[in-house]
Amino acid sequence: MAEEVQEEKKSGGGKGLIIALLVVVILLIVGIGVMTFLLLSSGGSDNNANSSETEQHASAEHGDEATTHDDGVVRDYSPKFKQYDPPEPGSAPQYFAMEPFVVNFKGEGQAKFLAVNMKFMSHYPQLIADMENYRPILRNDITSLLRIQTYTDLNQDNGPDVLREKVLAKARNVLEKHNIYPDLLEDVYFERFVMQ
Q1: What's the rounded Cα separation, in Å, for the pair 21 and 18?
Q2: Kind of pairing, strands 113-122 and 94-97?
Q3: How far apart are CA 114 and CA 143, in angstroms?
Q4: Which DSSP letter does residue 150 get?
Q5: Percent of the chain beyond pLDDT 70?
Q6: Residue 88, Cβ density class (10 Å: 0-12 exposed, 13-18 middle, ≥19 buried)
Q7: What torsion, rounded to 10 degrees, do the Cα atoms 71, 76, 82, 87 define?
Q8: pLDDT (tens digit, 9 = 90+) per residue, 71-84?
Q9: Residue 40: in which H helix or E strand, if any?
């Protein structure tokens, strides 16, 4: 009888070991399955995000509210602004030349006149054409801006660049007041800048 009890204990212990091993194996399989699901679902959401970005870019390129800049960035802007056709990919920028400005300014005894020739740049030919309608306003506002400049400020190394930023902001402000998206006017360049 004692031998039968020992055999039952051995066989019972063997069954317990087999059950424990089966539980561990099942837990490993479940863990691997969960990890695989999480990795695939996060990779899938990245792919979905990329495809939705692509769809947004595609719809923005063909939508009425989109503008494409020369850097390839598509930006949506409010329909309250006048809508322009996006420029052709790789198209050259267009320029709007202002007549030369010659103004008295605060020369502080060093100079009395400031002469500036400038051109505005945009990749939107329709905007350049529309700017002709606002030439008198632009001329007035830029002349007022130039008159309040000082010799000390303009004579700095970055003086002309700071003035370019001010002129661009002034022109963008005029466009925005007339329901034209201001960032379509990309830059302004001085062809001549003389203080005397």
Answers
A1: 5
A2: antiparallel
A3: 10
A4: B
A5: 75
A6: exposed
A7: 30
A8: 543 445 677 888 88
A9: helix 2-62
Q: What is the DSSP string of 51-107?
A: HHHHHHHHHHHHSTTEEE-TTS-EEE--TTSPP-PPPPTTPPPEEEEPPPEEEE-B-
Structure tokens at 25: 């194996």
DSSP state of 186: -
Phi, psi of 152 (to 5 degrees): -60, -45
**R_g (Cα) of the chain, nearest Å:** 35
Q: Which residues of 38-49 are buried (b: 16+ CB within 10 A; e: fewer)?
A: eeeeeeeeeeee
How far is the C-alpha of 37 from the C-alpha of 99, rounded, in Å? 66
Highest mean predicted confidence (pLDDT) among 42-46, 53-57, 107-111, 146-150: 146-150
Q: How far is CA 172 from the centre of its chain?
A: 17
Question: How far is the CA of 44 from the CAs of 2, 55, 121, in angstroms?
Answer: 63, 16, 42
Instruction: Name the residue with tokens 């022109």.
Output: 171
* Pair 117, 191: CB distance under 8 Å: yes
